[in-house]
């Protein structure tokens, strides 16, 4: 046992010695590493001191040179150094692509005042920098509440010269703040009405950015570009064909990311596509349905597609195309650009870079004239508003009178058409809040209504309202007369539902004598002068009149001898072909009873033609010899007898046909 204890003690001593040696070795390694680190720090410190010394030497050398240059122009006994001369604030070499060093606004304004030559490249560079900063500032601070105030300030800048800067600023701001995409799209829509080349340039750049992001698999940039295009389609700056092309490309080879981007795109502009291209949107949703049934995409994306179908079922409620506060442009004023994804695109990057313009002053003058036409004479009034403030009391009174005259003469043109939107809202709320049409008519007469206001959807309520207007004032009657002519000339552009509503509205006005019946003279019922749309319009118009008045009263109105001149175009008698066409038309729509006079005229037309030719033949017979006239007289007597017999037979046949018609009508009744 003692031997075993001794062996254990020896083992412990050996382990202790081994551990102590290991700790000593590790301490040596750490000391070595520490010494190496200190050596590197000393080397870095010496390098910094050496570089600081060189820099100090260079500064001292520069100070000595400045002192020597400053001391040359002073007296030797003063022994003072003069201040170095100021370097010119503008140097062409110091100005790079982005405008060089930052210049404060006050110093930039002072530099622009110091420049004598307004057409020099230096002055053009300064105005370019000021234009870039102004456009960036206006685009960055625009939102839904102040967009109406930002738009006049934006038009005050030279958007023709800075169209590249404007497009670049809009794309950068939209990329940084995708939630404000609809605001930027509304801003671009307003600018596009006055400068279509700016809207087209922006659309081309966004499409190019979209194609690049799609090739590079850059999802954030692709989402931003897709959202911008969706809202440009909502504002009708871009045609809906580009939306359908984009969705086709995204869903051709579906992946999780491409399907997600497509779902977001349809969510943004699906409401507009449902109205403009329902068949195209139906095809897109069928493709979504096929992808969902295949089940090859992720569960999360499948849930997104199901949510999109729920939004479509709810008719895109909560995802309207344009918010009311951003609906600033009328449909007829907007210019839509048709661009395809397969078209070659030139982004015109050179417009973002400053280039001297040899005709700079002329270009600026032309834009000033254009700005006055867009914004009015506000700038001129503001320039002359503060003149004469230091004169006496008499001059102040004269200035006040002049200012009042200027205010009376000043006419502000609302490019956003906010007043028109508010007027439509007021008319709608007035009609909906009235008990009956008479109350609505009295309320609407108190509003300053502009000519040409009309409602798209027809109800009998609106017919009574139009009747009330026509009965109160003849001005409305004349306006509805003009509307009838305009609607009939453009009837081929309307859909069948809208065409039916227009026909019912005017039929109500004619049936209640609110509109004079001479407006029917604008309609010419022949095969050559009518189209399928105009025939549908005439059909619905006369069917509604027969329901309002009845076939008997309608026939009496149409046979009124005082109005026959107005009805000659509807019941033509110039050509048997046109007469037969009118008879067949009214018979096919169930109103053959109003064509009885026309049928009689068609039957008697050969006799009328013969009677018209009879004086001509008699004049020719009188020019012949007397002998021949005697022989002809006996023959003519026999012919007259035969004609009288034929006429009596025709009248008897007509009477029999009339009796048969009356019996048939009695049986039907």
From TrEMBL:
* Alphabetized GO MF terms: RNA binding; translation initiation factor activity
GO terms (BP aspect): mRNA splicing, via spliceosome; regulation of translation
Where in the cell does this protein reside? Nucleus
What is the first-listed, main subcellular location in coarse terms?
A: nucleus
Question: Which ranges are annotated Acidic residues under compositional bias?
Answer: 1-14, 391-408
Q: Which Gene3D superfamilies match?
A: 1.25.40.180
Task: Identify the Pfam families for this entry.
Answer: MA3, MIF4G
The annotated region (Disordered) lies at 1-98, 373-415, 612-669
Tell me which GO cellular component terms the UniProt record holds.
catalytic step 2 spliceosome
Residues making up the signal peptide according to the UniProt record: none
Q: Where is the composition biased (Low complexity)?
A: 624-639
Report the residue ranges that make up the MI domain in this protein.
407-525
- Protein biosynthesis as UniProt keyword: yes
Which residue ranges have biased composition labelled Basic and acidic residues? 15-80
| Keywords per UniProt | Initiation factor, mRNA processing, mRNA splicing, Nucleus, Protein biosynthesis, Translation regulation
PANTHER family recorded for this chain? CELL CYCLE CONTROL PROTEIN CWF22-RELATED, PRE-MRNA-SPLICING FACTOR CWC22 HOMOLOG
Give the record's family classification.
Answer: Belongs to the CWC22 family.
* The name this protein goes by in its record: Initiation factor eIF-4 gamma, MA3
């Amino acid at each position: 046992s003692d031997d075993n204890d001794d062996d254990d003690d020896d083992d412990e001593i050996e382990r202790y010695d081994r551990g102590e040696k290991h700790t000593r070795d590790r301490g040596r390694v750490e000391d070595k590493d520490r010494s190496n680190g200190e050596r590197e720090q000393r080397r870095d410190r010496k390098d910094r001191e050496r570089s600081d010394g060189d820099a100090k030497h260079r500064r001292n050398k520069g100070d000595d040179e400045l002192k020597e240059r400053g001391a040359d122009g002073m007296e030797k006994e003063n022994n003072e150094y003069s201040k170095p001369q100021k370097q010119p604030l503008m140097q062409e070499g110091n100005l790079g692509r982005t405008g060089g060093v930052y210049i404060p606004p006050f110093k930039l304004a002072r530099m622009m005042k110091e420049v004598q030559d307004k057409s020099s490249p230096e002055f053009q560079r300064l105005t370019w920098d000021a234009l870039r900063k102004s456009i960036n500032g206006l685009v960055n601070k625009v939102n839904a509440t102040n967009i109406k105030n930002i738009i006049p300030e934006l038009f005050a800048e030279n958007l023709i010269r800075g169209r590249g800067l404007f497009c670049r600023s809009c794309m950068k701001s939209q990329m940084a703040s995708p939630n404000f995409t609809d605001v930027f799209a509304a801003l671009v829509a307003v600018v596009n009405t006055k400068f279509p080349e700016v809207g087209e340039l922006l659309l081309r750049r966004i499409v190019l950015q979209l194609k690049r992001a799609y090739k590079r698999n850059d999802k954030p940039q692709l989402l931003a570009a897709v959202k911008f295009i969706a809202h440009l389609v909502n504002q009708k700056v871009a045609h809906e064909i580009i939306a359908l092309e984009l969705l086709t490309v995204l869903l051709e080879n579906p992946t999780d990311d491409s399907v997600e981007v497509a779902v977001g795109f349809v969510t943004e502009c699906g409401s507009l596509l449902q109205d403009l291209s329902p068949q195209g949107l139906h095809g897109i949703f069928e493709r979504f349905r096929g992808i969902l049934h295949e089940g090859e995409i992720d569960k999360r994306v499948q849930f997104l597609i199901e949510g999109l179908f729920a939004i479509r079922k709810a008719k895109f409620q909560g995802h309207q195309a344009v918010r009311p506060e951003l609906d600033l442009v009328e449909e007829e004023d907007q210019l839509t650009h048709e661009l395809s994804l397969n078209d070659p695109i030139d982004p015109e990057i050179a417009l973002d870079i400053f280039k001297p313009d040899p005709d700079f002053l002329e270009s600026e003058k032309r834009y000033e004239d254009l700005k006055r036409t867009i914004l009015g004479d506000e700038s001129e009034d503001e320039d002359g508003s503060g003149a004469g403030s230091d004169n006496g009391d008499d001059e102040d009174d004269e200035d006040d009178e002049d200012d009042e005259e200027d205010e009376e003469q000043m006419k502000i043109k609302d490019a956003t058409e906010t007043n028109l939107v508010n007027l439509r809202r007021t008319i709608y709320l007035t009609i909906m809040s009235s008990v009956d049409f008479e109350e609505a008519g009295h309320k609407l007469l108190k509003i300053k209504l502009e000519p040409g206001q009309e409602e798209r959807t027809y109800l009998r309520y609106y017919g009574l309202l139009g009747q009330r207007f026509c009965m109160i004032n003849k001005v409305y009657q004349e306006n509805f007369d003009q509307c009838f002519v305009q609607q009939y000339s453009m009837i081929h552009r309307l859909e069948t539902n809208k065409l039916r509503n227009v026909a019912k509205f005017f039929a109500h006005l004619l049936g209640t004598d609110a509109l004079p019946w001479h407006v029917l003279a604008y309609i010419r019922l022949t095969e050559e002068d009518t189209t399928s749309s105009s025939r549908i319009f005439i059909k619905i118009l006369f069917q509604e009149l027969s329901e309002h008045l009845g076939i008997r009263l309608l026939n009496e109105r149409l046979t009124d001898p005082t109005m026959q001149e107005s009805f000659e175009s509807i019941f033509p008698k110039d050509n048997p072909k046109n007469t037969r066409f009118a008879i067949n038309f009214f018979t096919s729509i169930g109103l053959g009873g109003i064509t009885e006079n026309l049928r009689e005229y068609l039957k008697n037309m050969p006799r009328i033609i013969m009677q018209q030719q009879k004086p001509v033949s008699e004049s020719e017979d009188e020019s012949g010899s007397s002998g021949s006239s005697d022989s002809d007289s006996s023959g003519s007597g026999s012919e007259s007898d035969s004609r009288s017999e034929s006429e009596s037979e025709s009248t008897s046949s007509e009477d029999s046909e009339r009796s048969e018609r009356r019996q048939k009508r009695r049986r039907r009744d």
